[in-house]
Amino acid sequence: MKRTTVKLADGRELIYFDSRDDADRTALDRRPLEIAAPASEIRRDRLRGESVGYAAHRQSRTYHPPADQCPLCPSQGERLSEIPAADYDVVVFENRFPSFSGDLGRCEVVCFSPRHDGSFADLTPEQAALVLHAWTDRTAEFAENPAVTQIYAFENRGAEIGVTLAHPHGQIYGYPFLTPHTERALTAVAEHKRATGGANLYDDLLAEERADGSRVVLATEHWTAFVPYAARWPYEVHLYPNRRVPDLRTLDDAARAEFPAVYLEILRRFDRVFGPGMPPTPYISGWHQAPFRSITDEARADFALHLELFTIRRGPDKLKYQAGSESGMNVFVSDSLPEAAAARLREVATA
After folding, report:
1. For the whole prediction, is pTM greater than 0.90?
2. How many Å is the maximal CA-CA distance in the chain?
3. Are 216 and 207 in contact (CB under 8 A)?
């Protein structure tokens, strides 16, 4: 594996992750770009006790360009993109239109493949392993950034989700604050530990799901994928390493080696879940990692790295919208039972 860092024309950082040691990464960014100067702002909602980010410069970001103008494809001749090279394996670069930047965090784009019409599910296990390496590399570097409290590596896939670039890619957010989702989880973990005299909530939930089995989608020596007991979305899968670790940096070699085949199988099942002939399933997939700041060492050690994957599609031609109850009161009402969703995801397993 080869890692090469270069600078784009406006001063942003770009990193090539290559499977070959002889990859040539000397191509220069020839675009006439002004030096990037994004401006972010954070405001605190005192009633909810939550932070809200503002990034007005994102209004001008690239929006559904035609395929021959995709900024995530490799540069070809005079068709110049965000990636100066004529080909690549995996690329990470600073977002040109970041939600958080400077003293208020950091945002990066992760391009999984040079193929414009591909998807993560199309990757080989070797390519998926390279993406995992890139996520881990960026997690390690973000962790050293004093402006970053928490790291979220995620993929939005599909126009229904709101994706504005069709090219297979994800993002990494380095939040400058503790996110509400994680704050609530940490509170629940601490309360469970007090109530049980020291038990870990993540460990107990995983053990219960494996013992019950009705919501388990896929179980291997080092990973377990299941539909959570109180799933909010029509199809929602949580993927845990069987040995609890706080973040991607601390995955052991065995779990790291087994991950690509497990994750690719789950993504491919998502694409089959609504039957043959259906378009690719839209989804959001993201790694939940222990925050690096704003919590105690004990709380950090109690956190469990895991991936959460879900789709808003509830049927072949139906979407699950966050309407009044969901958006207004954050109370989800689902049309399908988690056990039925898990059964369907087992049903469409690779033969």
Report:
1. yes
2. 65
3. no
What lies within 8 Å, CB to CB, of 62 at 6+ separation is: 71, 97, 164, 165
CB-side neighbour CA atoms (13 Å) of 101? 19
Q: Which amino acid is at 142?
A: F
Nearest to 150 by CA among 188, 115, 176, 121: 176
Nearest to 167 by CA among 99, 109, 124, 119: 119
Host H or E run for residue 263: helix 253-272
Contact predicate 14/83, CB 8 Å: yes
As a whole number of angstroms, the distance between CA 232 and CA 334 comes to: 6
Give the list of residues 6+ apart from residue 125 with CB closer than 8 angstroms, or none: 260, 261, 264
Instruction: Tell me the HSE value of 181 on the side-chain side, using a 13 A CA sphere.
Output: 11
Between CA 267 and CA 242 the distance in angstroms is: 19
Contact 152, 172 (CB under 8 A): yes
Bridge partners of residue 74, in order along the sequence: 83
- Which is nearest to 112 in space by CA: 122, 100, 102? 122
pLDDT in tens, the chain (351 residues): 899 999 999 999 999 999 999 999 999 999 999 887 778 899 999 999 999 999 987 876 777 899 999 999 999 999 999 999 999 999 999 999 999 999 999 999 999 999 999 999 999 999 999 999 999 999 999 999 999 999 999 999 999 999 999 999 999 999 999 999 999 999 999 999 999 999 999 999 999 999 999 999 999 999 999 999 999 999 999 999 999 999 999 999 999 999 999 999 999 999 999 999 899 999 999 999 999 999 999 999 999 999 999 999 999 889 998 899 999 999 999 988 999 999 999 999 986
In 3D space, the residue among 94, 97, 93 whose CA is nearest the CA of residue 40 turns out to be 97
Report residue 339 as tokens. 């056990």
Contact between residue 200 and residue 244 where contact means Cβ atoms under 8 Å apart: yes
User: Which positions are catalytic?
Assistant: 169
User: In 3D, which of 240, 254, 229 has the Cα closest to residue 303?
Assistant: 240
Nearest to 176 by CA among 17, 304, 52, 326: 52
Closest CA to 206 of 245, 167, 151: 245
